[in-house]
Amino acid sequence: MNFHREPATFVGQVNLKVQDLERSISFYKEVIGFTVLNQSERKASLTADGKTVLLTIEQPEAAGPKQPRTTGLYHFALLLPNRSDLASIVGHFMKIGQRIGSSDHLVSEALYLSDPDGNGIEIYIDRDPSEWTWSGAEVAMTVDPLDFADLLSGGVAPWEGLPAETVMGHIHLHVAELRKVEEFYTKGLGFEVVNRFGSQALFISTAKYHHHIGLNTWNGVGAPRPDRNSPGLKSYTLVLPTEESRTAVVGNLKAIGADVTEENGTYATEDPSGNRIILVV
């Protein structure tokens, strides 16, 4: 099952605000392995395959340092196609001295780091879905140490940037509370809760993926929205399988009182914590 194509609904592209565009371009090219698809004075579109935009970075006017303890991005997550690709980027990080975190989540193996503005990044590979453990509607996930010895035991191929098959695997967001947010994403957008991490986080997906979106209150219940020009999340896209499904989602969002705007065929909404979502087909 490919969880990042029809009939699933999934995150396609993440759009970030940064303080210094050139600094961020250098980081995303040299450390993460993106290539620049196009660039203007204040914005760059980044790609892994030379044609599909996975990430945009934009420098707002009068951008200052990233505000702490707000809603917004916790991390975006790049899904690599093969375990050998994860080993390769570990070798790259070791070579350049890049500090990283890591975890074995049972469903996946993941690396963690931040860009120069403190925007969180996960780079991961999935274990085969046949290895995931489900208990009813919930999938087992944990935060165990990553076994680097095993990961690197097959050898480390030279790093050549992000593989062309890299996709935006998921996004994880800071929110101000979970009750209304859960209603928005489940009743409005049609996701299902697949894991609850105590009372502070939940993970949601379509098509029985381990998660397309994570939501947490780790910046505090009632966390404020960041200022407009603060580095962080500008928006992200949700890719819906058909025009009919988008029409249904728009209707469901309006039925629960969420605002949906449409301009030149572009539909946009915000979750209850101000995270902006572009609905695409």
Helices, strands, pairings?
Layout (H helix, E strand, L loop, with lengths): L9 E8 L3 H12 L2 E5 L3 E5 L5 E6 L13 E8 L3 H14 L4 E4 L3 E7 L5 E7 L7 E2 L2 E2 L8 H4 L15 E8 L4 H10 L3 E6 L3 E5 L7 E4 L15 E8 L3 H13 L4 E4 L2 E5 L5 E5 L1
Parallel strand pairs: 1-4, 5-8, 11-14, 15-18
Antiparallel strand pairs: 1-15, 2-3, 3-4, 5-11, 6-7, 7-8, 9-10, 12-13, 13-14, 16-17, 17-18
Polypeptide structure, described:
With about 280 residues, the chain is an alpha+beta fold. The chain has one domain: 2,3-Dihydroxybiphenyl 1,2-Dioxygenase, domain 1 (Roll). It has 5 helices and 18 strands. The strands form 3 sheets. It has an 8-stranded mixed β-sheet, covered by helices on one side. A hairpin with a 3-residue loop joins strand 12 and strand 13. The longest helix is centred in the N-terminal third of the chain and has 14 residues. The radius of gyration is 18 Å and the shape is globular. The protein starts with 9 loop residues before the first strand and ends with a strand. The model has no long low-confidence stretch (mean pLDDT about 95). InterPro entries: Glyas_Bleomycin-R_OHBP_Dase (IPR029068), Glyas_Fos-R_dOase_dom (IPR004360), VOC_core (IPR037523). This is Glyoxalase.
